[in-house]
């Protein structure tokens, strides 16, 4: 684990504890750490969560997402940064429960 980017590992642990499906990858971007979680998977992506070099909030150990944005956020950008693992987890958990209820 990279000591600089730990928040994404907090999210990974929260997802595992809740048994919510996701894909995890870690790959360098311009030679520097770049970590991604995709919920539920690449084929049916609802949200991509990234942390690493060049991401919004990385310097404060926070996460950037694309997908599962609030209505207010959707009007401004396609991605939102500076989010905690708990904030992102709450979005994913709410979507997961909604999808389970409608059978998707």
Give a structural overview.
The chain has one domain (1-32, 60-104). It is 33% helix and 28% strand. The protein is built from three helices and five strands. It has helices at residues 7-18, 71-74, 85-102, and strands at residues 23-29, 32-39, 47-52, 63-66, 80-83. Strands 1-2-3-4-5 form a five-stranded antiparallel beta sheet. A hairpin with a 7-residue loop joins strand 2 (32-39) and strand 3 (47-52).
Query: Which sheet architecture does the biggest sheet show?
Result: 5 strands, antiparallel
How do the strands line up in the largest sheet?
Answer: 1-2-3-4-5
Instruction: List the secondary-structure elements in sequence, H or E.
Output: HEEEEHEH
Helix-strand makeup class: alpha+beta
- Mean pLDDT, all residues: 92
The number of distinct β-strands equals 5
Strand content: 25-35%
Low-confidence stretches are: none
Query: What's the total helix number?
Result: 3
> What gap, in angstroms, lies between the N and C termini?
33 Å
Shape: globular
Number of domain units: 1
Using the CA coordinates, give the radius of gyration: 13 Å
What percentage of residues falls in helices of 4 or more residues? 25-40%
Present the secondary structure layout:
Layout lengths: L6 H12 L4 E7 L2 E8 L7 E6 L10 E4 L4 H4 L5 E4 L1 H18 L2
Antiparallel strand pairs: 1-2, 2-3, 3-4, 4-5
